[in-house]
TrEMBL record:
InterPro entries: Transposase_17, Transposase_17_sf. Residues 9-109 form the Transposase IS200-like domain. GO terms for molecular function: DNA binding; transposase activity. GO terms for biological process: DNA transposition. It comes from the Bacteria. Pfam families: Y1_Tnp. This is Transposase, Y1_Tnp domain-containing.
Length: 110
């Protein structure tokens, strides 16, 4: 059965959930979280995406984002790919870091 197409609507809040593969840690130490937030901040500025909240746990994360100019899919692709490359190099690992694709739930307006 094919996947449902992702709803990627500008100017609408999206609750984004990303989980580590096999529920493994995606943040091994605080420096990893700091790196992720710095990358997120830079991408939000470039894409004019608004971030209303974030929560980073050791093996998953939540973001409350409102894309405007750049699609949510493009922003998340850049964020997650860049972070996975950083994490894999730092911890001398290879392969997938995240389980499946990110989950996105449409929310009401803030």
């Amino acid at each position: 059965m094919p996947r449902q197409p992702r709803l990627d609507i500008p100017d609408v809040l999206h609750h984004v959930i990303v989980r580590g593969i096999e529920r493994r840690d995606i943040f091994a130490e605080d420096a990893d979280k700091e790196r992720f937030v710095a990358s997120l901040s830079a991408l939000l500025t470039k894409s004019a995406t608004k971030c209303y909240a974030w929560a980073l746990m050791s093996n998953h994360l939540h973001l409350l984002l409102m894309p405007t100019r750049v699609s949510l899919a493009e922003t998340m692709r850049r964020l997650l790919t860049g972070y996975a490359v950083y994490f894999n190099r730092k911890y001398q690992r290879c392969g997938h870091l995240f389980q499946n694709r990110y989950k996105s739930i449409l929310c009401g307006q803030p």
